[in-house]
Amino acid sequence: MSDIRKIIVVAMAENGVIGRDGDMPWRLSTDLKRFKALTLGKPIVVGRKTYESFGKPLPGRPHVVISRHTTIEHPDVTMAHSLPEAIGIAERLAREAGQSEIVIAGGGEIYAQAMALADRMCVTHVQTQVAGDTSFPAIDPSAWMAVEAIDVPAGEKDNYPTRFVIYERRSA
């Protein structure tokens, strides 16, 4: 058992949609600030398409990017060929930085694989249904328990209100 916690961070619509055309299908400034607070200083594991949607590495976070074929040359990016390899690299980076968590931040295929491995999920439930081409897997209540929930009204730079929920894995 690893001493480093694996945290999934995601924003998803009521119908499970997390992305459309390589981007998020909403503007949520409040949630982007929360994402930064949750991830700053921690290694962040993402798939190549999610990384490319950022445009460049997010400052203050080492990135581990999963791709079977592409190589990204950047001092803040380490490449991996699979989720298990990426998690191993991120855990090493976390230990070196004195961090106790790594963040798994998408996209859809990465989340689907990570659900079985994560210890905690920080989910922004966007209070709308939207069209999209990428979805988050269903959250199984027999595996996950909501331990904290905060309703967040839409701020002036947000398209929708949200409900921020922290889920912990239920012990077997």
Automatic annotation (TrEMBL):
The DHFR domain, residue ranges: 5-169
Enzyme class: oxidoreductase
Alphabetically ordered keywords of this record: NADP, One-carbon metabolism, Oxidoreductase
Keyword ATP-binding attached: no
Classification via Pfam families: DHFR_1
Molecular functions (GO terms): dihydrofolate reductase activity; NADP+ binding
EC number of the protein: 1.5.1.3
Pathway noted in the entry: Cofactor biosynthesis; tetrahydrofolate biosynthesis; 5,6,7,8-tetrahydrofolate from 7,8-dihydrofolate: step 1/1
Cellular component, GO, one term: cytosol
Signal peptide limits: none
GO BP annotation list: dihydrofolate metabolic process; folic acid metabolic process; one-carbon metabolic process; tetrahydrofolate biosynthetic process
Reaction(s) catalysed by this chain's protein: (6S)-5,6,7,8-tetrahydrofolate + NADP(+) = 7,8-dihydrofolate + NADPH + H(+)
Origin: domain of life: Bacteria
Function comment: Key enzyme in folate metabolism. Catalyzes an essential reaction for de novo glycine and purine synthesis, and for DNA precursor synthesis.
UniProt family annotation: Belongs to the dihydrofolate reductase family.
Record protein name field: Dihydrofolate reductase
Protein source organism: Rhizobium sullae
